[in-house]
Predict the 3D structure of the following.
Amino acid sequence: MKEKIISKASELFLKLGFKSVTMDDIAGEMCISKKTIYKYFCNKEVLIEESTSMVHKQVHEVIDTIVAKGYNAIHENFEIKEMFSEMFKNNIDSSPIYQLKKHYPEIYHNVMSYEIEQCSQWFRDNIEKGIREKLYREDLNIDVYVKFYYTLVFHINENTVSEKEAQKMELEALEYHTRAMSTPLGILELEKQLKKITT
């Protein structure tokens, strides 16, 4: 039952927002009593923490699945971007990360410190892969480019109210990041991926 509550709460939080969803809403959606929810979670904040942990775990599992498919580094980034768009397509009004930061800053900071560490490793792996594939330049300072990119991506999500706008800006950031690192071969692959989005 605990996992079912977390799953339903996550779905509602992502769709309607962390602030607006109440324990009554979750109970109503699940046709259970609020008392049942409080049996597992002493308050809404604990449920939000558990829900965000579950969503991040799912995100990383999907990223691992995409990476395991063996796409080239640039194609891989675009597949992951597409996965995020799909995941949050029902929430075009308000960015979940923006809401979390605004209404539950403590939970947000706990989530982000872990998330930055995870994403930094994934960005680093992607850059090293792209260099091996001759898609990214060999002379890159990998640490600097990892920091550039996560600063850009997290800044967009933290400060953009609309999820639709955030996703649009993230695509621009991905293109910007890729162009800055790419060899001529990489630019060709980037143009190919961008063309797939517009067609």
Observations:
- The chain has a mean pLDDT of 88.
- DSSP finds ten helices and no strands in the chain.
- The domain at 44-198 is CATH 1.10.357.10 (Tetracycline Repressor; domain 2).
